[in-house]
């Protein structure tokens, strides 16, 4: 039976044969080429069209199974992947470490192999140890997507941030992007640095010296600058991204007091006025309103934070399609 027009992918969806190179896993953005990122954007454009329909579902991944394997709490990433998979008609299984055989001592590799044996085609994994998704990818034949590993990487968040910027500015090339806050512990910041610099943006990192990793900036990243003064960093900014203080990952002594951090690094209306008049405000979430960002900025006219969540579904639909769409 022929499917209805609403059930089909848009004609604008890029052909998989035209993809720069079909990858098996998505573990970080450090190995993505500019062409690959552009291809993800083009595919997300088509998926966004699906999300604008009355019936937000296509049969593209019917018969495929996605498993979310999360060892840390998550709302946005887990629900976004679940919604993306269901929109593509895939089956979804959610698994948390709590209540699983992990509590009985089952190893990470054995858990992944069990999921593969049960028919998983894609495993989306979040883990508190950096490198855990890389380990799993070496021991299973299914596709692995890194949903965040320790302080290391969060590639799908990086891609949806890039996509949001491109939607508003038209291009990422030449944009001045300021990332503020706990860069040392932020996997989002690391993936964004790789993606933004690959796409031609100028990146300014602004944080207390104790929250900036060693080695970010020249010569490793010639277009990345570390600027401890927030007022100086924000001048002429096109995009501003405050980060949540990762209290659960910090060791004692990195900050004198929370009050001092707010005084010097909180994004408020006065500081926002130092950037370009139409500067975008992004945040990977969850937000600590009143700490890294004030409520009036978080929900103001220049904020695209809720839009990031919506666009995250389109980007993750695109990634799922590019990994297993049309696969035999």
Give the SSE string.
HEHEHEHEHEHEEHEHHEHH
Low-confidence stretches: 1-6
CATH architecture of the largest domain: 3-Layer(aba) Sandwich
Give the termini separation. Answer: 21 Å
Radius of gyration: 20 Å
SS elements, strand count: 9
Could you explain how this protein is built, in words?
This protein is an alpha/beta fold. It has 2 domains: 165 residues, Aspartate/ornithine carbamoyltransferase (Rossmann fold), CATH 3.40.50; 150 residues, Rossmann fold (3-Layer(aba) Sandwich). The protein has 11 helices and 9 strands. The strands form 2 sheets. It has a 5-stranded parallel beta sheet. A 4-stranded parallel beta sheet has the order 2-1-3-4. Helix 5 crosses helix 11. The radius of gyration is 20 Å and the shape is globular. It starts with 33 loop residues before the first helix and ends with a helix. The N terminus is likely disordered.
Could you list some keywords that capture this structure?
single chain; 328 residues; alpha/beta; Rossmann fold; 2 domains; five-stranded parallel beta sheet; four-stranded parallel beta sheet; globular; disordered N terminus
In a nutshell, what does this entry contain?
This protein is an alpha/beta fold and 328 residues long. It has eleven helices and nine strands. Helix 6 (187-198) links the parallel strand 5 and strand 6 (202-206).
Layout: helices, strands, pairs:
Layout (H helix, E strand, L loop, with lengths): L33 H18 L13 E6 L5 H12 L3 E6 L11 H10 L4 E6 L4 H6 L5 E7 L5 H15 L6 E5 L6 H12 L3 E5 L17 E3 L3 H5 L4 E4 L15 H8 L3 H4 L7 E2 L13 H4 L6 H20 L4
Parallel strand pairs: 1-2, 1-3, 3-4, 5-6, 5-8, 6-7, 8-9
């Amino acid at each position: 039976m022929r499917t209805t027009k609403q059930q089909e992918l848009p004609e604008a969806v890029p052909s998989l044969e035209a993809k720069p190179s079909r990858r098996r896993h998505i573990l970080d953005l450090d190995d993505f080429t500019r062409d690959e990122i552009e291809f993800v954007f083009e595919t997300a454009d088509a998926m966004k069209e699906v999300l604008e329909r009355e019936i937000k579902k296509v049969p593209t991944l019917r018969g495929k199974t996605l498993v979310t394997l999360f060892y840390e709490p998550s709302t946005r990433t887990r629900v976004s992947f679940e919604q993306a998979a269901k929109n593509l008609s895939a089956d979804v299984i959610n698994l948390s470490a709590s209540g699983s055989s992990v509590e009985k001592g089952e190893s990470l590799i054995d858990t992944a192999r069990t999921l593969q044996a049960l028919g998983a085609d894609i495993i989306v994994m979040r883990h508190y140890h950096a490198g855990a998704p890389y380990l799993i990818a070496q021991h299973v034949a299914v596709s692995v997507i890194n949903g965040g590993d320790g302080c290391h990487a969060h590639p799908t968040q990086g891609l949806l941030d890039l996509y949001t910027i491109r939607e508003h500015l038209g291009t990422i090339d030449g944009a001045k992007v300021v990332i503020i806050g706990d860069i040392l512990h932020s996997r989002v910041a690391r993936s964004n640095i790789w993606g933004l610099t690959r796409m031609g943006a100028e990146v300014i990192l602004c944080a207390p010296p104790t929250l900036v990793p060693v080695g970010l900036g020249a010569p490793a990243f010639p277009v990345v600058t570390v600027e401890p003064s927030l007022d100086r960093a924000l001048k002429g900014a096109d995009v501003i991204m405050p980060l949540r203080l990762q209290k659960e990952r910090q060791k004692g002594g990195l900050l004198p007091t929370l009050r001092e951090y707010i005084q010097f690094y909180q994004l408020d209306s006065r500081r926002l006025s130092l950037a370009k008049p139409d500067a975008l405000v992004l945040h990977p979430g969850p937000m600590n309103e009143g700490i890294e960002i004030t409520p009036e900025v978080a929900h103001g006219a220049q904020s695209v934070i809720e839009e990031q969540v919506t666009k995250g579904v389109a980007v993750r639909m695109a990634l799922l399609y590019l990994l297993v769409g049309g696969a035999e």
